[in-house]
Amino acid sequence: MSRVLPGRRWRPAALGGAVLALLAGFLVVTGVTAAAADPLISQGRPATASSVENAGTPAAAAVDGNTGTRWSSTFSVPQWVQVDLGTTATVSRVVLNWEAAYATAFTVQTSANGTTWATVHTTTNGTGGVQDLTVTGSGRYVRVNATAKATGYGVSLWEFQVYGSTGATGGCGTTNAAQGRPATASSTQSAVFPASAAVDGSTGTRWSSAAADPQWLSVDLGSTQSICGVTLQWEAAYGRAFQVQTSTDNATWTSIYSTTTGTGGTQVLTVTGSGRYVRVYGTARGTAYGYSLWEFQIRTGSGGPTNPPTDPPPTDPPPGGTVRLLSYNKPAVASTSQNDGACWECTPARAFDNDPASRWATAANTGWVDPGWIYVDLGATAGITQVVLQWDPAFARSYQIQVSPNASTWTTIYSTTTGAGFKETLNVTGTGRYVRMYGTARSSTYGYSLWEFKVYGTGGNPTAPPAMPPDPTFPANRLVWSDEFNGPAGSKPDASKWTIDPGTGQNNEIQYYTNNNNANMDGAGSLVIEARRETAGGRDYTSHRMNTGNKFHVQYGRIEARVKVPKGNGLWPAFWMMGADFLTGRPWPYNGEIDIMEVLGRNTLEGYSTLHAPAYNGGAGYGQKYPAPGGVDLANDYHVWAVEWDSKGMTFKLDGTTVFVASKATVEATRGPWVFDHPFYVILNLAVGGDFPGPVDGTTPFPSRMLVDYVRVYQN
């Protein structure tokens, strides 16, 4: 939930010494959203409207897949917003996610030409909120035409979703095959705008290039695939002339689309080609700035994978009984190191502590220069077979791996001028007591920074790192902890299992969490967490939050809860976990956060599962928004949310259906270090208001109740 418990303070993470403010919002993914039968066909398509309230509420915001952006009209009726599906489609379902300024009377219409309209739904008693409409019709254009409004403002939609099927796709899938895949670029404006931001599924992060021509952005799909569609969501700095190109080897390129009259905005392109690599190659900018993409999406002829493919990474550590991690907790020396408010105690030792949430960085005052270096003393002569570098966004574009018998005379065993950052696993051959990363060209104006620098081989004088617990085998079936909430009506949560956590929330939430006043057993086998409109702690609303900190911690297994969520604008139920080292002083997000379930009361047809870490958190967290399986309303009954977690990653499930997969290898290769291989504790809470769920209003029911049938943890 990207929230910090009362009494704890946290410091924003830094990128190569530059402070990056941590966002309090959440990732909204544009990749996978589907109806029970037909796919979503409107997302990212061109949209127009009768009017807009201002430049910050354009028509495109209603079809961008982001429930934090909206279209809003001027303060009169009639008003309309329409989407161009690109080809004639059979429309089966329309979902309207209204902002507080909703329409009481409106029609949903289809058209073949954008001029003559046929009505497929009409109402004169619209209630706002989320309206899920079953319709029957066909057309290239679909619009909502509002004729009466509920407030003194105009009409406003967070999202306008059209589901159906098109006859012109020719088997082209709807899944974004580029999401989460490794991406590279000709340049970046700064470390804040990396190539990976264009394929992370978040329309709140972007890649931005240097202000020169030409520039390119490339994504590796992992295998050769048939490419049939590309969507480019440009920032204001767009490409006037550009090509979309494919390659099988990342060297020879074939153009499958070309234009000299690009207009920016969202461009949905139908293309034909094949390749493992796909890139946008810009030759003329639309502005004086560089090129910038919020999202670069690719659709494949096979429909694309349900989850991004993950190439098998080089074995880490390498195979062989005599090969060991040689660098753990060994003495280290660097050209400079940073120790200030932006990167506290970022000393050389941090790169060798086997802790992916701590890092070394060169000093901001003297170290943001070339060359920059760091080396480790292995304690004795060793045979080096592999080096693993987990870079911060301040990475080396050109560097060498060197070995030495005396830390004075160095021999190069690996060299590159095309370093891509993130995780680089290098199979090398060399002999020496000392191993050095020697950077000669930085990727940005910042310095050099490594979360982890691991050296594997034989010999040396290694110290074994702490042993990890064994991976569970799923389905795990040994119950190791649970609370069934079977107490008598009115009884409180079991104090031997739960710590009550009173106080105010984060993210501009408006509730006060009371000291156990808002939680009771219902006598029928459920815990009731109740949000009320009442004054306490200086707030006008109260609710409840509790956790298992210092009473139950777990690393790996299946963690699940059966929950019935409340419906209503501004309500925010959650089932989540925090790294247990938070309780001993490590600040968020360095401890890691696992959001197993979040639902927004304004739209209980979908849920969220998200990971937060130093390199991806808040609005840039690594996660997924997904529809409820079968299109059900999650507020109408109990549902089981679960995460199956081991050393290779996490699989999130809702009622047994996989809704999101977080592969450790993919995250390390595309987003940053994986900080989830340590104990976590469980949290349940119901928040009110704030940046993510939005405000409560006159339709929000109080009291509102989150019902928890059980929480269970399984291992083998």
Automatic annotation (TrEMBL):
It comes from the Bacteria. Pfam families: F5_F8_type_C, Glyco_hydro_16. CDD domains: GH16_laminarinase_like. Residues 29-165, 166-301, 315-458 form the F5/8 type C domain. SUPFAM superfamilies: Concanavalin A-like lectins/glucanases, Galactose-binding domain-like. Residues 306-320 have a biased composition (Pro residues). Residues 300-321 are annotated as: Disordered. InterPro entries: Beta-glucanase-like, ConA-like_dom_sf, FA58C, Galactose-bd-like_sf, Glycosyl_Hydrlase_16. Residues 456-716 form the GH16 domain. Belongs to the glycosyl hydrolase 16 family. This is F5/8 type C domain-containing protein. It comes from Asanoa siamensis.
